[in-house]
Write a structure and sequence with these properties.
Blueprint (H helix, E strand, L loop, with lengths): L1 E13 L7 E11 L2 H14 L2 E4 L5 E15 L7 E8 L3 H19 L3 H4 L1
Antiparallel strand pairs: 1-2, 1-4, 2-5, 3-4
């Protein structure tokens, strides 16, 4: 088994979303036999951890999975642990989302696999 670090990106929307776009970039540890399996696991984690809840002001808060932006092999650590999380506020949320999708497409191309099509 190999250890990988994946950057999973979420968009945070509060209420009607009429605020500066916010993004949470999380670095996660993934244990897998190979890069293809690690990318598939990271994608699954991203989807499973989407959530919606009401904040103290009774506004709906949504964490929407965007994509897996980075993946790299690392030394052995604990499977699935969150290593890093950063909330991003961007003036142009659509441009940031497009950048995440481009990074994910590059990962898919360089892995030589079409695993995301099966997801």
């Amino acid at each position: 088994m190999n250890w990988f670090m994946a950057k999973i990106v979420y968009r945070i929307i509060c209420g009607e979303g009429d605020h500066t776009p916010q993004f949470d970039e999380q670095l996660r540890l993934i244990v897998a036999d190979n890069e293809e399996e690690a990318l598939k696991k990271a994608y699954t984690i991203g989807r499973q951890e989407e959530e919606c809840f009401y904040n103290a002001a009774e506004k709906l808060v949504q964490w929407k999975f965007i994509n897996v932006a980075e993946l790299s092999r690392i030394a052995e650590l604990i499977d699935g642990a969150e290593l890093y999380s950063k909330i991003e506020e961007r003036e142009n949320g659509e441009l940031y989302t497009e950048l995440i999708h481009k990074k994910a497409a590059y990962l898919k191309e360089t892995s030589g696999q079409h695993l995301l099509q099966a997801l």
